[in-house]
# Entry
Amino acid sequence: MKKLNRANVGLKERLPIKIVQFGEGNFLRAFVEYAFAELNDKTDLNAGIAVVQPIEQGMVSMLEAQDGLYTLFMNGISDGEIIQHKKLISNISRGINPYENFLAYLNLAREEELKFIISNTTESGIAYDPKDKLTSEPPSSFPGKLTRLLYERYNYFKGDPEKGLIIIPCELINYNADTLKEIVLKYTDLWKLDPYFKDWILTYNSFHNTLVDRIVPGYPRGELKKYEDQIDYKDNLIVTAESFFLWVIEGGDALKETLPFEKTGLDVKIVQDMQPYRTRKVRILNGAHTAMVPFSLLYGNKTVDETIENKFTGDFIKEVVYGEIIDTLNMDKKELIKFADEIFDRFKNPFIVHQLSSIALNSISKFKVRVLPSLLEYMDRNKKLPVHLTYSFACLIQFYKGEWQNEKMPVQDSEEILAMVSKIWQLKDSSAIAAQFLNQKQFWGQDLTEIPELVKGISMALDHIKAYGIEQGFVNFKESIEQYSI
# Structure
C-alpha cells in the first residue's frame, strides 16, 4: 500500500497560511480542519492551516510525515438514516513544533495573509503561568505563546491595523475567548510590553467566544482494517467522528462576511450571544446524559444506545427531554425540538459505543449544573414536581449508595463526597436520607430542604425504588406523585 503524501494522491500545491492553529489532536482535525476544508471547497477563502504543537510531546512530526494529510470518516444517523462519509483533509500546509524550532514559530507572525488563530488546548490550556517570560523559547502556556506571536506580528508590521487577527478558541470552557483575552493582556503587563501593543490588541484584533459540539472517537484502533479497506494508501492519522456538527461563534456581520459558512451547509451559527445555545446544549444533551446514567445503570443497561433502544428507559429519557426540560428553556420550541431530535439520533449512533459508566464521573456535580436548574425551573413554572426529573434525582441518590441488587455500581467521585454519602446512607429511613442529601449545600449550591415538596417527592421515589425496583417503582411513583400537588 502506498504511503500517504501529496505526491501519491496528486496534490501539488499547499494553500497559503491564513490560519494558525494551536493543537493537533483528533478533535481539531475532525472539526476545525473539516469546517475550513468545506469552506475552501464552497468559497474562495483558500485558507491553509499552520498547526502548532502546544506542548512538548505531540503529533506534529506524524502530520509532517504525511504532508499534513489524513482521512476523516464521519458516521452517524440522521432522521433514522445511516450516514457514512469520508474526506481526505488537505488544508494543513505546515506543522511546527515550537519546542524544536522556535524561529519557525515566530515566522508565522510574519505571514502576510494570516487572518485567524484557532485553538483547542484542552480545558486547562487557557491558563496563566506567571513563570512565562518574553524571552522563553517558547513560553510554556498557550496564552503566553499566543501573546509572543501577537507581539512579533505587531513589531514586524509596525502596528499595522490591517494585520490584526480573528481569534477563535475552541476550548470547552464558558467564555473561552474572554478568558484568553484577559490572560493575553495580563502578559502584556507582566512583560512590560509597548503600551501601544495593548491598544493594537484591543482595537484591531477580535476574540470570539465559542461553543463546539461533535463526538470524535479518534483513531479507530480496534476497527482499523474496516477503515483501511476503504482507502488505497497507508494513513497513520485516520480520525473518526460522528456526523453531527455544531459550531456557535459569537460575532457580528463582519465575521459572517469573513466566514461565509452559510454557503457550506454546516451548522455554524455566528450570533451576538452564544449563551442560549450553551444553555440548550447543557440542559438537553448533557442534562439527558446525566439524568440517564444512574437511572439506566440501576435498571441494568450498560450503554447510551441500549438505554434509548429499550422501551422503558428510552421512553423515560424522551419524557425527561421533550416533556420536562424543553418546557424550561426560553428559545423557539420548534428549534429546541429539532435539536432534541438530533440529540436522540446521536444517542442511537451505532458507530459509537458510549458506556454509561464512562460518563458517571462526578455525577453529583454534573446533576447540579446540568439537571437541577431544569427541575427547579419546571417547578417554578408549573407549580408541580416534574415526575421524570424527580425520579432521576432519586435514582442518583440510590446510585451513590454504591450497590444495587447485589451489584456494585460504578460510582466515581471525590473521597470527601463518597465519605459524606456513606454516612448519609447509614440512615434507615428514606425521608431522613432524602433530607440529608438535599441539605448538602456543597452538593447543590443551596439547601434544597427549603423546598419541602421536593424532599417529599424524593423520599416517595426512594421508597418505591426500594420496594419495587426501578421500572415498577417508577410506575407506582408516577401514580402517587400525580395525585400530589404543590
Q: What stands out?
A: The longest helix spans residues 452-481.
